[in-house]
Every structure is written in C-alpha cells, then in structure tokens.
C-alpha cells in the first residue's frame, strides 16, 4: 500500500485497519499449506487477493452509496467518492504488480480472469436490481461471479503455488466456489436478520437499494396480490417508507424465505466440505472445514 | 470487450465508437515497427494499452462529473456512475487477461507499473486541485504520472515485443514520456482556448473543477492582489459566476500563460524528437516525428 502520495496508504489503511474477516487471503494461505507448500510465495499472493478484494469494496461502496463498512464509516463517506475510486484502481494495479514480482503466469491468469468476472457480476447485479422478475438462477449467476469466483481463485492459487497435481487445484477451486456461494447467501440473509452492531455494516442496505437477493426472490415467488404490490412499490419503484423494512422482514419470515436461503447456504457448505475429500485428514484440513461452518453460522 | 452481460460491450463500445485519437495504441504499433517487429503480438498489446486508457477515461469522467467525452455524452451521463465504474474495472481486468495471453512478464511489469502510477497521479491531481500553492514542479509530477507514464509504457512495450536491445526500449520510453508531457500541456491549454465543437469535450472543465493546470499556475505566480483574490474565489473556493471563465481566459492571456505553457509543450516535443536520434531515418520514424508536431499543433 506504500505510495509517496500519503492519501493512498491513509485511505487504504482505513479499510484494512477496520478489520474484516480476512477470509480470502486466509484461504490462499491455508490452501497452500494443505498442499504441503513450505515456501513464502503464498504470502505475497494472499496480499494480492486481499488487495483485489479491497479494491472491489472501495468501488462497491461508491456504487452502492454505502455509509458503513466493517463497523466504521466507509472510505467514500470520509474522503468522498473520487479518492475511493482512484485508490481502488491503485490497489488493483498494485495487486498485478505484486503478481508480476511473483512471476507465475498461471496465477496471473487465474486472478485476472477472476477480476473481470467480478466486474461482470457486479454489472449483472445492477441489471437485476429493482427487477422482480429475477429468479433464483439469475441470482446464483450474480453471486457466483461477484463473490464466489474470488474465493475459488484464492483457493486455487494456493494449490498452484504448491506445484501439486491439477486435480488438487481443481478440488480447492471447487471448495472455494461452493464456500463463496454459501458465504454470499448468508450475507444476503444477514442483511435482513443481523444486528447492526454485530454486522459492522448497515442493516437493510440490500432492501433500500432494491437488490434481488434470494430471500426476496423466494418471497416474491410466494407473494399474494397485496404482497406483490408491496414488493413492486418498495423494490421496483424504490418508494419506501420508514416501516417498510420491518414489513419486508415480516413477509420474508412468513414465507420461510430466510430459513430457506440459509438451508441453501448449508447445502453449498456441504458441497464445499465434500470437495476436500481428496485430501487426507490434517489439522489444516480441519480448519478449512471449520471455515465452512463459520461462514454459515456467522452473525457478521 | 465481449461479455455475456450486454451492457458491458454496449457501454465500452459507446466510448470506443466515439473515436478519440487512438494515440496510445498507435504508439505501441509504431514503436514495434520502428524496431523492425514483423509479428502480430503488438496488436493485442496495443489493445491492452487502449483498454487501460478507456478504463481510466470511464473512471475520470465519474470522478470529474464530466458530461461530454469525444464529442458525445459521456458514459456516466448516459448510464450513470455505477456502470461506468464497473465497466472500467472490467476493461482494466480484460487488459491484464490479454497480457497474460500474450505471455510476457516484462510487458505485464511495464503496464501494471504504469497503471498504479496513473492512479497515483490522479490522486495527486485531486490533492493539488483548489490549491493555489501548487507550483510548476508539482503540476509536472501530476501530468507525468497521470498521462505521460502510459505514453511511455505504450512505446516501451513496442520495443520489448520486438526483442531489441534495451537501449532502444529506453529511447522509446523517453520519447513517449516527453511526448506525453507535451500532449497533456497542450490539453490543459486547449481547455481554455479551444472551440468546444472541435475539442469534443466541454471547454472550461478544468477551471470549473479548480484544477491547477500550468496556465493557472503561471498566472497565479504573476497575479497582483486583485487577481489573486479572483483566483482564490474561483479556484480555491469554487465560487464561480457565469462570466468568470471569460475573465480567467483574459488573465491567462494578459500574463502570456497560454503561450508560455505551449512553449513548454514545444520544448518537451523537441526532447521527444531527440530521443529517437538513435534510430535511422525511415518512414515510420518520420511518422513518429509527425506525431510530435500533431500533439502540439492539434486543436482537439
């Protein structure tokens, strides 16, 4: 994050110091160790993964006008949209510089592909927002691209850096992909069900932006005429009043939408765990299995 | 630019179809040919250069709230800021994917470094905006980073792809760097002196944003007390009235600031031309020398 332009480490440091779960870089580190890697390259590559993630957070918060991130004021709230966009660009470029220093074209291929897929997913999400016709398949396409691809890439490069057979990298990628989908499903449930102080971001953001996350997709599919009118007004037309979020939560609960989305997350979690079957039992494998449980049971 | 998400090629295509001078990719093509390169790799790399440039344009127009680009409504005006930020990210990632396909770590190093320097330069520009204390050295630092680095990188990779001795790549980089500085100096003069229909972007944008470009830097250095008050109100406090742009142009003219900035551009142009001394005369060399004249004499 170093730069002679002081605002860059300052702004990037604000996001990084705020914490976050550091899940993605941890996946790179753990995947490399699961494959028996004993060098130090995975440290730099885990940094690349977190830089790419941080860059997308900075741009997301601008795109979504988010006020809170990791329990602190978001960078765009503190410094405005302009530096947030540009420091995102900087971190993104720095990630590629670090990959070049590492010198693996295979890693560069994996992470450049993941980056363009993330951007595609974010655009797709914009297009499905406020569109009640969005179904479960379209929703899954969005979260696979915007979230799960980077989880998958983070895991895969851990295998690649260890120089192990392709089957192991494939298994790690599959683990990361299913874990990432489960993670985002839970994220989307938490946006309606978490306690704000625990979550570290604003509750109800998805609702206020009219995002078609799975809970809403399920509730809309089961809505009667009155409920449909509610969703049309709040999600499609974004005409919201203060008590609408409570009403939305009540409808999601009445239709079991939050429980069912969580069940879907659990199924993807099981798929993630199964993907690691080809690895023998080890402390690091048990940690990666615990990560699955954490992602599903987390309250933040 | 292809993507299953139709908005991506649509928005990117809008920017590309609007034209532009295509100077940067042309520099890669011409530099490769000047070095005797006869393959096809320079085509893909020139595309990477233009993608990186287009990504920065999309983000710049969001950051600057620009309404016009290349004579058409800017992408942020047509589709809003969100898709502009995200399609910028997409093009940027695609550029790196294309470089990975090309397979040269040296090219990846040059363009990833140029990209992070551009972002640094853009942040630096934000920080010097509205700051009357900005001097000529700080201004040159900004334009070197935000503009000239990509010109230099575009030229250098032309030499790298040809596999010629380092001295030739160095000479091409020096040509690109000086040309880029000259180009941006002229750009900053045109923002006060061009005819809007010819320029293809809004006249007076820099003034309205309070950017400290060289003409203003020079005029501020020569200002009397009344003039200083004018610059403080318009550039520092951004309290502008309708006739202030005319008044600014009058002051720049009175202090020869536009002529002098143009003279500085000419000097950098001569430096660019001299950098090519190590190459024997050839049609392609003559074209690269003509490019210098074009960049200085252009009206758009």
Automatic annotation (TrEMBL), chains A, B:
The keyword Transferase applies. Residues 228-255 form a coiled coil. Its cofactor is Mg(2+). PROSITE patterns: POLYPRENYL_SYNTHASE_1 (PS00723), POLYPRENYL_SYNTHASE_2 (PS00444). InterPro entries: Isoprenoid_synthase_dom_sf (IPR008949), Polyprenyl_synt (IPR000092), Polyprenyl_synt_CS (IPR033749). Keywords: Coiled coil, Magnesium, Metal-binding, Transferase. GO terms for molecular function: metal ion binding; prenyltransferase activity. One of its GO terms (biological process) is isoprenoid biosynthetic process. Gene3D superfamilies: Farnesyl Diphosphate Synthase. Belongs to the FPP/GGPP synthase family. This is Polyprenyl synthetase family protein.
């Amino acid at each position: 994050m170093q730069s002679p332009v002081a605002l860059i480490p300052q702004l990037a440091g604000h996001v990084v110091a705020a914490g976050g779960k550091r899940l993605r870089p941890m996946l790179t580190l753990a995947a490399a160790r699961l494959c028996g890697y004993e060098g130090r390259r995975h440290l730099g590559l885990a940094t690349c993964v977190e830089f790419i993630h941080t860059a997308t957070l900075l741009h997301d918060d601008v795109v979504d006008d988010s006020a809170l991130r990791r329990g602190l004021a978001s960078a765009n709230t503190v410094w405005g949209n302009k530096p947030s966009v540009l420091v995102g660009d900087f971190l993104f470029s720095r990630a590629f510089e670090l990959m070049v220093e590492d010198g693996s074209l295979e890693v560069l291929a994996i992470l450049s592909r993941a980056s363009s897929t993330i951007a595609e997913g974010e655009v797709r999400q914009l297009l499905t927002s406020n569109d009640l016709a969005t179904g479960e398949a379209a929703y899954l396409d969005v979260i696979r691209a915007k979230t799960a691809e980077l989880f998958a890439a983070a895991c895969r490069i851990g295998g690649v850096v260890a120089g192990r057979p392709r089957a192991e990298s494939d298994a790690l990628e599959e683990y990361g992909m299913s874990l990432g989908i489960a993670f985002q499903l839970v994220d989307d449930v938490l946006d309606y069900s978490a306690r704000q102080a625990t979550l570290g971001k604003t509750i109800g953001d998805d609702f206020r932006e009219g995002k078609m996350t799975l809970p809403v997709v399920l509730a809309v599919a089961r809505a009667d005429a009155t409920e449909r009118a509610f969703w049309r007004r709040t999600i499609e037309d974004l005409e919201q009043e203060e008590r609408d979020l409570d009403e939305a939560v009540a409808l999601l609960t009445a239709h079991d939408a939050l429980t069912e989305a969580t069940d879907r997350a659990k199924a993807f979690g099981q798929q993630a765990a199964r993907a690691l079957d080809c690895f023998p039992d080890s402390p690091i494998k048990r940690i990666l299995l615990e990560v699955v449980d954490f992602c599903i049971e987390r309250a933040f």
